[in-house]
Amino acid sequence: MELVPWKPFRELGSLRKEMDRLWDPFFTVAPFAGLGSEEWLPSADISETKDKLLIKLDLPGLVAKDVNVSVSGDILTIKGEKRKEEEEKDEHYYHCERYCGSFQRSFRLPANIQSDKVEASFDKGVLRVMLPRTEQAKKKEIEVKVK
């Protein structure tokens, strides 16, 4: 049998961690988010290749005319608005999670982007913004020579 020194506050530390873990969902998920709010932020994926940066935004329920993409200096701004559908006269909501309203996302562009050649396309609720890199910014492979 092995003797282990008793540390009275060790149990309190683990109890505190468990209590914090129980409260985390309450403070991280706002239970009334969206009520009275006029803004939502669509999810964005940003990826890069040797030739370009690609930003994809999920915009379900929108059409291309509802979205505006602009570049000003080194800032790419994407704005849009999701309109509320017409509601039937005798329809009553008990709970509604679908959001309607405007949004705006801005992204700072790196210096090595050709802002005059930015292209945007919209298909099946996904906005794709392609940002081509400058020639100097493209990765160049250098051969290592053996002497």
Report the structural category.
Answer: alpha+beta
Regarding quaternary structure, how should these chains be classified? single chain
Query: Can you write the helix and strand succession as a string?
Result: HEEEEEEE
CATH class of the domain at 44-84 and 95-137: Mainly Beta
The helicity comes to 10-25%
Q: How many β strands by DSSP? A: 7
> What percentage of amino acids are in beta strands?
25-35%
Provide key terms for this protein.
147 residues; Immunoglobulin-like; alpha+beta; single chain; 4-stranded antiparallel beta sheet; 3-stranded antiparallel beta sheet
Describe the structure.
This protein is an alpha+beta fold and 147 residues long. The protein has a domain at 44-84 and 95-137: Immunoglobulin-like, CATH 2.60.40.790. It is built from one helix and seven strands, in the order αβββββββ. The longest helix is centred in the N-terminal third of the chain and has 21 residues, at 8-28.
